[in-house]
Amino acid sequence: MASNQIDPLWLAMSKLRRGKLEDCINLCNEILSSNPGDQAAWLTKCKAVVKQNYLDDIELDEEGVAEVLMDEHSMASVPRYLQCHLFGRSCKLF
To answer: How many structural domains does the chain have?
Structure first.
């Protein structure tokens, strides 16, 4: 490696920190193709793959506003018929 080139492992770790996971994985693959026993490259690649495929299960459990409002099993908050004040008879809402 010439003195004016950036170390590929350092560049891969930089890409990992910045969230450019595909670039990080590709750089690690290049490093590992020439030196399959490079443990730092393996660790960096594993971190990138885990970060890329990470699924936050807490977000899946939270119900959004639409799910709360559109719940079919909830009780109605208003009756289906209201008394019309103008004519004194029931008016259908739904």
So the answer is: 1
Closest CA to 12 of 4, 53, 84, 25: 25
Cα separation of 45 and 50, whole Å?
Answer: 9
Report yes or no: 40 and 18 within 8 Å, Cβ to Cβ: no
Contact 1, 35 (CB under 8 A): no
Domain assignment present for 93: no
Domain with 24, as residue range(s), is 1-54
Output the six-digit token pair for 79: 């009756």
The DSSP code for 18 is T
- Model confidence pLDDT, tens digit, residues 36-86: 999 999 999 999 999 998 876 666 666 666 666 666 665 666 555 554 554
Residue 12 contacts residue 44 (beta carbons within 8 Å): yes
**Residue 79, in any domain of the structure:** no
